[in-house]
Design brief:
Helix 3 crosses helix 6. The chain is an alpha/beta fold. The strands form five sheets. Strands 1, 2, 3, 4, 5, 6 and 16 form a seven-stranded mixed β-sheet that branches. Strands 17-18-21-20-19 form a five-stranded antiparallel β-sheet, sandwiched between helices. Helix content is 30%, strand content 24%. The protein is globular, with a radius of gyration of 24 Å. The chain folds into three domains: 201 residues, FAD/NAD(P)-binding domain, CATH 3.50.50; 110 residues, FAD/NAD(P)-binding domain; 115 residues, Enolase-like, domain 1, CATH 3.30.390.30. The longest helix has 25 residues.
Length: 458
Amino acid sequence: MAEFDYDMFVIGIGSGGVRAARFAANFGAKVGAAEDCYMGGTCVNVGCIPKKLFVYASHFSHDFEDAAAYGWTVGEPQFDWKSLRDNKDTEIKRLNGIYENMLANANVDVFNARATVVDPHTADVGGQKVTAKYILVATGGWPVVPDIPGKEHAITSNEFFHMEKWPERAIVVGGGYIAVELTGVLHGLGTKVTQLYRGLHFLRGFDDDVRYHLADEMRKQGIDLRFNANVARIDKDGDELVVDFEDGTQMRTDVVLYATGRAPNSRGIGLEEAGVELGKNGAIQVDESFQTSVPSIYAIGDVIDRVQLTPVALEEGMAVANTLFNEKSGPVDYTNIPTAVFSQPNIGTVGLTEAQARDKHGKVDIYISDFKALKHTLTGRDERTLMKLIVHPETDAVLGVHMVGPEAGEIIQGIGIALKAGATKATFDATIGIHPTSAEEFVTMREKVPDEDRRAAE
């Protein structure tokens, strides 16, 4: 008789949990997994996938405007929110089914129930006790709304994708990538948007030239960006919300969307009682093999708050499956992770920011190109693309690559491979460009930017 019901039991069926469960089962382990909310986690249901679909939708307003310059006559465009929302829901349900089928095909037992940790080898799953040699926690994160008067009137990204009515006016609070992306979606779909950030400039942690350039582009579009600004309280007045700001001013709006961060979803599931160490923000503390302070309990993904990206959670899930059931252990490499922000225009980035590079290496060489894309030579749209290379002056290694412009994520993915392979500036220079594309600019930049021309954001 087996000592445990399962070799591994996974709590949370998001991207990382599914990857770990599938491959552990493929390696011969008996695996169970539980999910009480979204099959597929944040990414599939209220994150990457619906967000990108909405970004696609929001681009059409610009496309209709630009079409005339290319000889097209387009009638008066009309946007139907319910059609977009319902079509998105259909696609999400399809993806939910794919996740369930992937686990079923791998012979993973799926429990559609809430699971909590009872002890190092036991979980309570909807009132049923199951035992496992290992427990893997992959419960992700959850949006945080500051404790201000009237916070119950605000929504988060969770509710954003399911709104009953599309707003004419919206206030977005936050300065991270989620806030920037949803601001662009709202604006592109016809909403008058004000985005607030309590700091001096949004997108903290991104390269400063990227931050400044995107802010300029968003303001050109008519988005009301306000830095050093925050909400003091929210009141409801009929169908409107009345928002008081900390500077004493007031604004009426239809929606207040908080995108001020996501906290690790680790509380109230028995972890502390079982002896698992949590950080101040609730992040589960793990070593390089994702083992917690309790040897039989592991954790991956947003709940450990390392790099909150779906592909990273997939790598972490794979690492756990390999370590526990495939005799292949090794840390996940978090260097040179390509990242995209689906702002409008997009951001693509890989490697070090200029500030990080200077802190680490001292002097660096900077190459920047700021230009109008070929498409807009006919449309007349005042949108500019930014590209930037950061190079080590002695080794010639490319330390960081950053872009703001159409399809930045698609372009940076390939450049991420180059950086992972150790590309130098000479490698870029020796590469023949594809003409005419924006991407060719990365292999044609020759003039270094003088140090005295650099600027930094706080």
